Amino acid sequence: MIPYGRQDISDADIEAVVEVLRSDWLTQGPAVPAFEQAVAERCRVGFAVAVNSGTSALEVACQALGLGPGKRLWTVPNTFVASANCARRCGADVDFVDIAPDTRNLSPEALSKKLREAEKNNALPDVVVAVHFAGHSCDMELIAELAGTYGFRVIEDATHALGGTYKDAPVGSCRWSDIAVFSFHPVKIIAAGEGGMALTNDAGLAENMRMRRNHGITKDANRMKRPDDGPWYYEQHFLGANYRLTDLQAALGRSQLQRLDAFLDRRRAIVKAYHAAFAGIDAITLPVERPDTASAWHLYAIHVNGTSEKRRALFERLQADGLGVQVHYLPVHLQPYYRELGFGEGDFPAAEDHAARAISLPIFPAMTDDDIQTVVAITTKACADLL
């Protein structure tokens, strides 16, 4: 079975973790700030705050931006549930904006229209989470312009997109957003086992997120509400949680980061091979990226041109023939939890159409040339037989 994604662990990665195991610090030590600095430098951003998952990064980002009861967050249905759940975890309301059929990212036209309608109804969002699906950046400059007009804050859910660029700026630079978040899950661009990071150019937001990952506690004397009782003294200023990343994970992530360019080159080579091999198959539509972006290509999601029954037949055939394909994503608004909040079929037709036709083929740096040819051969034959 060739999975749709998997980690690529080297001897250097293993040694980096072993070095931490032999050190005095397994958590809350020097490996975490070293990893944060390395990611911040790579993304040309002012501050990076490491946490234990991309989900946690979304939550501390929302909390730092003041999201809570009576507030609203908008995101897309074509994403993992965490992009919406972060708002609900803060007690805020959630709504969705449909995607563009070509990029499968947030549709600028749909966002603009929804904002105009919301302004009339005094129901504008407080935060918009722009999801960079499959590693392709959204049109962040336009989203930033709309944020300036309508007064909402912007989080980039860049969990698929480390190493990608938009208008020659690294994804994560926060040039057009308040906060950007990454994930270091094993199938993502680099792996830390689990792990995430929130990036920002705002020192106040960075400090707020650092405290929130550690129970809302500070040891900064300049922030104390009462006189310092001694070197042991600390204060909890708000309700946080333990979202800390361990030094073991940080060491692995930092080691992986050194191979980021090689990982990206391999992913793009796989995409080039797939594009060439599948270009003549009329029964499927291939993914595209915006001309002003360089995608990180976390996913390679084709569309089956036809009914959902044809997609299911192709999906099951590919799995039976040894490809660990997947669907990204089931529309969030159609999950039972969100149906109970009033969402249903037909609310966001482009996202629903994508979910009915998408299949993610294997793509990860450790794929060999033989693996690529196996995926091509199996997929091509299955399409010919079934579509």
Structure description:
- This protein is α/β, with parallel strands linked by helices.
- It has 2 domains: 2-257, 3-Layer(aba) Sandwich (Aspartate Aminotransferase, domain 2), CATH 3.40.640; 260-386, Aspartate Aminotransferase, domain 1.
- Helices cover 39% and strands 15% of the residues.
- The chain has 13 helices and 17 strands.
- The chain has helices spanning 11-21, 31-43, 54-64, 82-89, 108-120, 140-150, 203-212, 247-257, 260-278, 308-320, 336-339, 349-357, 369-386, and strands at 2-3, 47-51, 72-75, 93-96, 127-131, 153-157, 165-166, 169-170, 179-183, 196-200, 217-218, 235-236, 284-285, 293-294, 300-304, 323-324, 358-361.
- α2 (31-43) runs parallel beside α8, α3 crosses α7 (203-212) and α10 packs across α13.
- The model has no long low-confidence stretch (mean pLDDT 97).
Structural class: alpha/beta
Q: What is the H/E string? A: EHHEHEHEHEHEEEEEHEEHHEEEHEHHEH
Spans where pLDDT lies below 50 across 5 or more residues: none
Please report the number of helical segments: 13
CATH homologous superfamily name of the largest domain?
Type I PLP-dependent aspartate aminotransferase-like (Major domain)
CATH topology of the largest domain: Aspartate Aminotransferase, domain 2
What is the total tally of β strands? 17
Largest sheet: 7 strands, mixed
Shape estimate: globular
Total domain units: 2
Radius of gyration, CA atoms, in whole angstroms:
21 Å
Q: Report strand %.
A: 5-15%
Helix content: 25-40%
